[in-house]
Amino acid sequence: MKDEETRKLTNFFSTEPGTVAEGDLQTSSTQQDGAESPPIIETLDECDSNASPAVKKPRLAFDPMDIGRFVRKSSSLHAPLTEEERFKALTDCWKPDEHYQFPKVLESTRTRAFQHHYLVKWPWLAYSEMHGGGAFCKYCVLFARETSDQRGPNFLGVLVAKPLNKYKKALDILKNHERCQYHCEAKGKAEKFLDWYNDKVGHDLRNRLLAAREEQVKKNRQGLVPIIRTILLCGKQNIPLRGHRDDGSLSAVDGNNNDGNFRALLRYRLDAGDRLLEEHLNSAKKNATYVSHTFQNEIISTIGKIIRRRIVAEVKVAKFFAVLADESRDVGKTDQLTVCLRYVGGEDNQHVVKEVFLKFSDVEEKTGSGLARSILGVLQEEGLDIRNLRGQGYDGCSAMRGSNKGAQAEIKAVVPQALYFHCASHCLNLALVHSSELAAIRLVAGSVANVCAFFSNSSKRTRILQDQIERSNSSNSRKKRLKTLCMTRWVESHQAFIAFKELLIPIVQSLLELEQEVGETGARSYELLSAICKCQFVTSLFIIESFSSLFLPLSVKLQAKELDIFAALDLVDNVLLVLRRRREAAIDGFQQILAEVTEVCDSLEIDIRMPRICERQLNRENHPADSSEEYFRVTSYIPYLDSLIDGFISLFADARQGALKVQCLIPKFAVRSSVTDLHPAIEFYESDLSCSVNVAKAEFERWRAKWMEVPQNGVPASAIDALNHCPAADFPKINILLRILATYPVTTASAERTFSSLRLLKTYLRSVMGEARLNGLASMSILRGIDVDPEEVIDSLASNARKLDFVL
User: Fold this and answer.
1) How far apart are CA 143 and CA 190, in angstroms?
2) If DSSP codes are grouped into helix, strand and coil, which group holds residue 128?
3) How many helices (H) and strands (E) would you count in the chain?
4) Where are the transmembrane segments (predicted)?
């Protein structure tokens, strides 16, 4: 018996030295640990009879996932492979490691071996220790047809039915095989099989064991979506959410108690057939329905954070940004600081300037240093790098614009490149306010405000005025009602004078009718008639209206978000040019105004005459004149015009000085500029450019040459327009400077608008509100164009411990 055990077939073969690797004589070390099937002993009967004698092996234990095990099974002469076997062969096929010693094959007078890098270069290649050792194509072994592309019964051989074990022309064979049609077909079948099998198998073992939990998580999330959508609706539409008492079950309705719009809208969803919400409320515990005011605050705060994260992400992509800030007191007597950001968004050739609201912040200290700390604190809290701050836009109060201890000076001490720009709309308003210091102009503004307040405070007076407007010859005018004179709403201020001038005759007729009444109304009407039925008032009103018509479009355009500092100054220069031309033609210009005044005064039976002139006059202008026309021109028209010109020049001087340093980058000015004009900007923004002065100057020369031959009407005149014609690949340094220039703030109109939303959010009915809730509601209301996915809100909420599971 012992002799029979020792007389094995392999004992009759002797291995040739140097032709078989040492590792081949050992039991395969690559067999997977924990494999269910025992090692299979292969005999020489399974070896390819055509293989070189040098690669014939004695009986060995081969790896269970050796690709050679699937060669004969994939043939039609054998049992077909199971789906699981094909999947394992594709994904878990045995692969020698980098230290594996491939057996050498004697070819002619040289020995060659399979190379490991073949497996890296061709992922479909697999090495087999079986069939005499050699390489197979996994795809073709498992999925290829039995014949090749050629005509006739040409059965597939090397790499499919037989291993590749001749390596002299291995590279050519592998390349040709990769291109052949049957390989491409097999590859396509393999990819489709993997997709199908993965879909069929689905989740891994852990998820299959937790399928019930996954289903519960899905239901929990579905139940929370209607609640979040209801809060989003209320937030975007500025609908108050809470009521007097908003706790308890939704089904417990108290007719005497208003529990708020939020809970009412949830009931409306239930009545409309929202099954997901109904199932959630019926199945959840009383302390896990998530309709309480506490969880409502969490959802609102989370939505606000998501919106701010998106804004901050856009700012980080743009890199450079400017801050717009203003301060106001809300109805709850809390000083609120609003912070907005200005930056360049969009992609190449489609850049746009964006001004977006960031958040409100309670202000405890209204000094320059206190406001600066609040602004920087908001920026750092939201994850913005203040080193990329390149502009500051505030109004003209001393706490903000002070050059020594103002907020802008405190911030510039931290970030020297953060230039301060006085709001252009405030500058325009200040120019008009300064011009109103003339006695004649000031009295007109006061009388207009008093008349507007007199009519607006009584519905009866308003109805009488409307009747007079309809019966008046001026009913053809587009103005059908008075506008209140508001000094903080710049556009309405201009519109108020225009409307008052057009409706002057119906106003006087209404006051004459109201003067007949007994009591305060009659007395007040008499006072107002005495003020406005004077030649001095009518003349000054028509003078103001002639300039308000000029300033109205300017005031509207200055509040545009996409406007840059150069375009704004261009608009201001156009108006200033008109003012100077009117000053040069003051005689002719005032004659046209006086002609209109004469027509209206004749209708109202007002005499046009100049006041009495005395030797010593303290309370009004006392210029000697030969006619009433000359008097009113010298005392009202020319001084008002001169005051406006001086105001435009002085108030816009700072913005003009800051723009002059870098305006040579704008193609409109670049063609008339020299390289030395750019030197101050290069030095100031040296840290942003990260290059030598000569490199930046050379790039500017190419930039200027690009526009030298372009017609003047086709040359960009603004920073954002120039940026859209400045590829970063061609002009990297100019592109950086233009981005910074487009970031310069023009007005704080965006910040002012947020206070309008604040007055809708915090009213006398809901004057107490936490900062997190306020910012969440403000973000939804002001930035209603940003869509928030409820699933994203749920993911954020799930980061904290909850009574219900919302994630696996």
Assistant:
1) 7
2) strand
3) 35, 11
4) none
Domain ranges for the chain: 14-201, 211-288, 299-428+748-797, 443-654, 661-743
Long-range contact set of residues 384-388: C-beta below 8 Å, sequence gap at least 24: 384/312, 384/315, 384/316, 384/321, 385/316, 386/414, 386/415, 387/415, 388/319, 388/320, 388/321
Please provide the distance, in angstroms rounded to a whole number, between the alpha carbons at the two ends of the chain.
63
What does the pLDDT look like over 626-671, one tens digit per residue? 788 888 888 889 999 999 999 888 888 888 777 777 888 999 888 8
Beta bridge partners of 110: 107
Confidence bin at 786 (pLDDT 50/70/90): very high
* 171 pLDDT above the threshold of 80: yes
For residue 589, give the nearest of 637, 521, 534 by alpha carbon.
Answer: 637
Task: Report the length, in residues, of the chain.
Answer: 808
Residue pair 297/773 in contact by the 8 Å Cβ criterion = yes
pLDDT single digits (tens) 444-464: 888 999 999 999 889 999 999
**Mean pLDDT along residues 176-200:** 87
The amino acid that residue 52 corresponds to is S
pLDDT in tens, 385-399: 999 999 999 988 889
Report the candidate in 660, 684, 682 with the shortest Cα–Cα distance to residue 673. Answer: 660
Q: What is the CATH number of domain 299-428+748-797?
A: 3.30.420.10
CA dihedral 530, 531, 534, 535 (to 10 degrees): 180
Burial class (CB in 10 A: 0-12, 13-18, 19+), 151: exposed
Do residues 263 and 251 make contact, with C-beta atoms less than 8 angstroms apart? Answer: no
Distance CA 555, CA 594 (A): 26
Residue 26's CB: how many other CB atoms inside 10 A? 10
Q: Based on the number of CB atoms within 10 Å of its own CB, is 397 exposed (0-12), middle (13-18) or buried (19 or more)?
A: middle
- Tell me the pTM: 0.70
Cα(593)–Cα(543) distance, integer angstroms: 7
How many CB atoms are closer than 10 A to CB 759?
A: 11
Tokens describing residue 380: 């750092």
Percent with pLDDT over 70 in the chain: 85
- C-alpha 330/C-alpha 92 separation (Å) is 67
Lowest-confidence segment of 370-374, 537-541, 710-714 by average pLDDT = 710-714
Calpha distance 353→744 (Å, rounded): 10
**Residue closest to 26 by CA, chosen among 1, 52, 62:** 62
Q: Which of 108, 113, 155, 120 is nearest to 134 (CA)?
A: 113
Nearest to 371, CA basis, from 333, 391, 341, 397: 397
Q: Is residue 435 within 8 Å of 642, Cβ to Cβ?
A: no
Give dist(CA 732, CA 689) in Å, integer: 9
What is the three-class DSSP state of 136? strand
Contacts of 620 (CB under 8 A, 6+ apart): 439, 440, 611
